[in-house]
Write a structure and sequence with these properties.
Blueprint: E1 3-8, E2 13-18, E3 25-32, H1 38-42, E4 50-54, E5 58-59, E6 87-89, E7 92-93, H2 106-112, E8 117-119, H3 123-133, E9 136-142, H4 159-163, E10 169-171, E11 177-183, H5 188-195, E12 199-205, E13 217-220, H6 231-243, E14 248-251, H7 253-261, E15 265-282, E16 288-300, E17 308-314, E18 320-325, E19 330-333, H8 348-356
Parallel strand pairs: 3-4, 4-6, 5-7, 6-8, 11-12, 11-13, 13-14, 14-19
Antiparallel strand pairs: 1-2, 1-9, 2-8, 3-9, 10-12, 15-16, 15-17, 17-18
């Protein structure tokens, strides 16, 4: 294993060993406190442009499942067609793996997909630095190639445009209910949850004008980066809301785009929410749910229009976790109800959306 150094933008350095693809890389350094699920997280398009730090100390011990595709065209065990995270940073990489469904090691997968991985980092100390300072840009540099320094790009980049599909894709054609899904970087399990509820899913690019199409409901998917880079999508949502009261549901980036269409402002969280254990409360009730999350921006609920209200709030920091229209079937969640890889406390959001189309 070659010696590598993670250099944060404030000059802080962490020294470790390379176990993935051997190339320097730069991006936004974020942390995820989930205890498992690295195949799903690495293939989540919302991690595009980011160096993903896992706080759970042992990573890689259950290997990587095969990349197989279901009859509906969705990957069976991954959330997309490839790894989207720019790198993975762990404390202790397990070279030996054991799992009934594993076909290769994490290192083999990373090398095959040209994604760097570093181990031997005190990821909990790194997380403390990020929590105090906030997320920072960072670079992974190979110690024997000190002159080969990558350039980081994140702010001002439209990552949604990079990860969104480029043409219309249809799933479960002929189903009774038709759903237009705006692909901002959609996870496969979101599409699967809609298919399993008897919907035909019409997946369109993030900036596609779907307002003249025949459909029963509009679904706004998750995605990476800054929602303020997606004004084209917001204008189309506003156009759709002016034309029809058809149900609208959003997840993660979809929550932020719906909120922007409702007149709200978005702000960047200090270090974001990336985990499987974020507690949220449904507004107006004492019901709390454990949720899976992956986002760096949040809706400023105080700026919502008079016809809108909060649907969920985060119990840790009070930030917005979902909105709804007071009279129309338009609602969203900042967390992931499909939650692959877990938990599934809030999958009822899909049921509510499908019911609203009846």
């Amino acid at each position: 294993m070659r010696n590598v150094t993670l250099v944060l933008e404030d000059g802080t350095k962490f020294h470790g060993k390379s176990f993935g693809y051997e190339a320097p890389v730069a991006g936004e350094v974020v942390f995820n406190t989930a205890m498992m699920g690295y195949p799903e997280s690495l293939t989540d398009p919302s991690y595009a442009g980011q160096l993903m730090t896992l706080t759970y100390p042992l990573v890689g011990n259950y290997g990587v499942p095969p990349f197989t595709t279901e009859e509906n065209g969705l990957p069976t065990f991954m959330e997309s067609d490839k790894i989207y995270a720019s790198a993975i940073i762990v404390a202790d990489y397990s070279e030996q793996y054991c799992h009934w469904n594993a076909v290769e090691s994490l290192a083999e997968w990373l090398k095959r997909e040209h994604v760097p991985g570093i181990t031997g980092i005190d990821t909990r100390e790194l997380t403390k630095v990020l929590r105090e300072h906030g997320v920072m840009m960072g670079k992974i540099i190979f110690d024997d190639e000190p002159e080969n320094v990558p350039t980081a790009e994140y702010a001002g980049v439209n990552f949604v445009d990079k990860v969104s599909c480029k043409e219309i894709i249809r799933y479960n054609e002929g189903a009774k209910k038709k759903v237009v899904l705006v692909d901002c970087g959609v996870k496969a399990n979101i599409i699967r949850c809609l298919i399993n509820r008897g919907c035909e899913v019409i997946r369109v690019p993030w900036n596609y004008d779907y307002t003249d199409m025949e459909f029963d409901g509009l679904f706004l998917a998750n995605g990476p980066g800054d929602p303020d880079m997606c004004e084209a999508a917001v204008k189309i949502i506003q156009k759709q809301m002016s034309l029809s009261d058809k149900p609208i549901c959003g997840i993660c980036m979809g929550n932020q785009l719906l909120a922007k269409a409702a007149g709200a402002h978005i702000y960047k969280l200090k270090y974001g929410h990336r985990s499987h254990n974020q507690p949220v409360r449904m507004v107006g009730t004492e019901k709390c749910f454990v949720t899976s999350q992956n986002h760096g921006y949040a809706v400023d609920a105080k700026t919502l229009g008079a016809d809108w209200e909060e649907l969920f709030v985060n119990m840790n920091d009070g930030s917005n976790e979902g909105i709804r229209h007071k009279s129309k079937p338009w609602f969203s969640s900042q967390f992931h109800p499909e939650a692959c890889s877990g938990p599934v406390d809030t999958e009822f959001m899909f049921d509510k959306f499908v019911e609203a189309m009846n």
